Amino acid sequence: MKSLVCTSFGTAPSMAIEERPKPLPRPGYTLIKMHAATVNQLSGQIRRGLFNKATAPLVLSNDGAGTVEGSDLFQPGTRVAIYGGGQLGITEDGLQQEYVSVKNSHVFELPDTISLDEGAALPINYVTAYQALTRVGRIEPGQTVLISGAAGAVGHALIQLSRALGARPVAVVSSPLKAEAARKSGAAAVVDLSTEILSDVVFSLTAGQGADLAFDPVGGSLLKELIKSVRERGSVVSIGFAGGAEACLDLAEVVIHEKRLLGYDAWLETDEAVSSAFSAIRAFIEKGVVRPVIDSAWKLEEHEEAYKRLASRQAIGTILLKA
User: Is 0.85 surpassed by the pTM of this model?
Assistant: First the structure.
């Protein structure tokens, strides 16, 4: 079978397609013919050598979708999504290959109402969004929530799920094109940082009070502005750092107004929590209120173009690699 292997990490990473033996069925695992694996921020960071728990050579990607070939839990032909958590594509080979053998607890049957492409975009993006909103942010109906990186895969999931949970999502983007994408995702309002000041717009939308919560996959310098834009005793949930891992905070904003900065890490999720989250997400899909968006799909042989697309930060939705 074909496997896309990252043979060295760094500023000029090396990747090559290798022929490897097809995995064999085994108890407690599901053998899956891959349809598509994601190219996400985590795999991009690992490729660049920014994640010290990963070692080369390594097959990247910790989520995707495919069809079951053999399993002691699922029938052959079942369409499934794969949630790789903190293992697949990080401490063990991931999903950018033709076949994979995955623990049953990390495999979830897909609803008939979505395609395999859409299913590949579900696991990490939507479980991350759902858990950040509910477990960490403790979102409540009627709240106004800011969502940075709103045109990206996690941002799209945050918009859709916050609406499904009864909140009012305000998208934070960096261009008119991304603003339009955020509106299509269901944002109640959009702040375009290329022409607008975040806090000014947010205070005008909330009668000067500020947003109740903010969810931030971007990080970097934007974090300071998000903290400024939430209300007294409001919270910012930091999900990632696509825009930089270091931020300068105004401690007066935090101390005087008792604002909270919280972190979310998918690695800390238990199998039971992921299963519960996926059940909730599946119910939203079946109601027609949640649906992933695909930016682009590439062949394994086109992996460099896929990672260039990721690095451009222009992607609208999820980037896929197909064997």
Answer: yes
